[in-house]
């Protein structure tokens, strides 16, 4: 038996966060948190890691221990990541844009190098 669904709800409520607030922090759609809390669906690996860091619990504990009782839900996060440090989704879009720009620059450099080689070999044949 796993406790994941109930633990997500208990941890979120202990922080006095709405489902929408948690969804924003995790960069998922609002209804996704409801699905996690009812056990209808489970997060992907990246989101799962963000959840355990955000709440400061271990992966084993959030799955296999009932965290809805006791002082465990009131603990401060053990992670060095704080709520306000979770990146907005725009940072990922910026990184993708930077990657695309880097790929374009590399392709341009390769094409320039090919032109240089072609020009150079043409001059050597003419001589």
Automatic annotation (TrEMBL):
It comes from Fibrisoma montanum. PROSITE patterns: HTH_CROC1 (PS50943). Residues 89-116 form a coiled coil. InterPro entries: Cro/C1-type_HTH, Lambda_DNA-bd_dom_sf. Keywords: Coiled coil, DNA-binding. This is Helix-turn-helix domain-containing protein. PANTHER family: HTH-TYPE TRANSCRIPTIONAL REGULATOR XRE, TRACRIPTIONAL REGULATORY PROTEIN-RELATED-RELATED. Residues 8-62 form the HTH cro/C1-type domain. GO terms for molecular function: DNA binding. SMART domains: HTH_XRE. The keyword Coiled coil applies.
């Amino acid at each position: 038996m796993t406790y994941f669904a109930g633990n997500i709800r208990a941890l979120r409520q202990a922080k006095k966060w709405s489902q929408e607030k948690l969804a924003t922090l995790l960069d998922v759609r609002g209804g996704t948190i409801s699905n996690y809390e009812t056990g209808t669906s489970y997060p992907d690996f990246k989101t799962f890691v963000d959840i355990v860091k955000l709440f400061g619990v271990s992966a084993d504990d959030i799955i296999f221990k009932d965290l809805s009782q006791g002082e465990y839900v009131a603990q401060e996060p053990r992670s060095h990541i704080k709520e306000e440090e979770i990146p907005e989704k725009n940072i990922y879009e910026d990184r993708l844009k930077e990657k695309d720009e880097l790929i374009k620059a590399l392709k341009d450099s390769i094409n320039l190098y090919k032109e240089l080689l072609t020009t150079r070999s043409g001059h050597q044949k003419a001589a």
